[in-house]
Amino acid sequence: MTATGRPSTRGRSAVTGTDWAEEALGLLLGRVGETAEQVDDRFPLYAEPADGRWTTTGRGSWTGGFWAGLLWLRAGRTGSDQDRTAAAAVTGRLAPWVEADTATRGLILWYGTAPATGDAMAQALRERAAKAAVDAFDPELGLVPWGSALGGARLRARADGVPGLVPLLASAGPEGRAAAAGHLHRHLDLCLPRDGTGRPAPAWRRDRTHGWLAEADPAPGWTRGEAWLLLAVADALLLADAVSWRADRLTRAAELLLAGCAMLAGPLVPPTDARHADGPLDTSAAAITAVALLKLALVPGAAWSTVCAARAEAVLYRLAHDHLTRPGGPRPAGMLLDGCYDAHSGTAVRHELVWGDFFLTLGLAALLGRVDLRRV
Q1: Please, are residues 263 and 226 in contact by the beta-carbon 8 Å criterion?
Q2: How far apart are CA 223 and CA 202, in angstroms?
Q3: pTM check: above 0.90
Q4: Phi, psi at residue 5, to the nearest 5°?
Q5: Which residues fall within 8 angstroms of residue 290, CB to CB, at 6 or more apart?
Q6: Which residues contact 66 (CB under 8 A, 6 or more apart)?
Q7: Per-residue pLDDT for 214 more than 70?
Q8: Residue 169: which of 137, 146, 139 has the closest Cα?
Q9: What is the 3-state secondary structure (H, E, C) of 124-174?
Q10: pLDDT tens track for 14-44
Q11: Among 81-95, 103-117, 195-209, whose mean pLDDT is lowest?
Q12: Nearest-10 crossing angle of helices 81-92, 64-78
């Protein structure tokens, strides 16, 4: 292992500069083409590690925007009108989620439209979604509720209901920016440990008698939830020059997450549950973290910029070299393996996940200067 966190190249051809990132990005986008042929008009969710066969969903669920986003990232790389048409078609099928009662419309409709540079339809869909999200903001609770669209109690707050929704809300003018700040800070109030130590509590339920109560699943130690929170904080810090975001508090939140969740010193690819280091890994948590770190490195004047940028590159390198399938093997090339959909239920615990592919692709494209993370 080198000082930068890169695996040693001893015993194999050395990769220099950013050649490794170019190679990995090419494999991921090649996989996008294979996936498109396999899933047809459905949305990929997770793929079997043995053969790359996707489990799909008809409406996209909370992950549909990542498939649209991958298609837009491919179109941005190729410049092909055919690829742009394919991306636009999938994005259009996300429209029913605009009015769905779910905070995950941020994941769906931000990441499904933000990479669509210059596409009028995607922009119009994003604007509709932003207005609907502002309308869903509950002033009494101080947030957009988790909602009932995916099942379960409606009045909940979860770490995965913040990323994507912060920039989506903020795109809707002054009212939207106020809602975005309220939504984020209320989640930080709930999720971050009050004494500044320990792991975030990622899921809460509103009780009429007792107020907000922490839920047992997912529990503190859910590393993907921690990554989602860091991503939302990073997005807010990049917007802080235009909005009164309480930037000092956001800086403290970022520092707490970076230190308390060992995002700068712990494993480059964390276990899905930090309390069980011998359990399944979650490469999707690592990929989300890498993008969040790259965003933090862009925050003007931040003391952490250099270390965040170096750590992000080390994470991306590890994912590309140790967890991405290569040509010539028994399964398709370009699969980011070892993602964990849900360890608690035992669902897809060592699989390729569509959002893991998206964030690895986004991170590599940003590292190579192909995507501006201030916009996606």
Answers
A1: yes
A2: 10
A3: yes
A4: 90, 0
A5: 312, 315, 316, 319, 359, 360, 363
A6: 107, 111, 112, 354, 355, 357, 358
A7: yes
A8: 137
A9: HHHHHHHHHHHHHCECCCCECCCCCCCCCCCCEEEHHHCCCHHHHHHCCHH
A10: 334 789 999 999 999 999 999 999 999 999 9
A11: 195-209
A12: 170
Amino acid letter, residue 318 = R
3-state secondary structure of 112: coil
Cα 34 to its chain centre, rounded Å, is 22
CA distance 97 to 64: 10
pLDDT for 291 equals 98
- Determine the Cα angle at 120 with ends 118 and 122, to 5°: 95
Axis-axis angle for helices 120-136, 173-191 (nearest 10): 60
Q: What distance in Å separates the CA atoms of residue 24 and residue 13, rounded to the nearest whole number?
A: 15
Residue 9 scores a pLDDT above 50 = no
252 close to 325: Cβ distance less than 8 angstroms: no
Q: Are 229 and 159 in contact (CB under 8 A)?
A: yes
Give the 3-state secondary structure of residue 339.
strand
DSSP bridge partners of 60:
none
One-character DSSP codes across 20-77: HHHHHHHHHHHHHHHHHHHHTTSEEEEE-TTT-PEEEESS-GGGHHHHHHHHHHHHHH
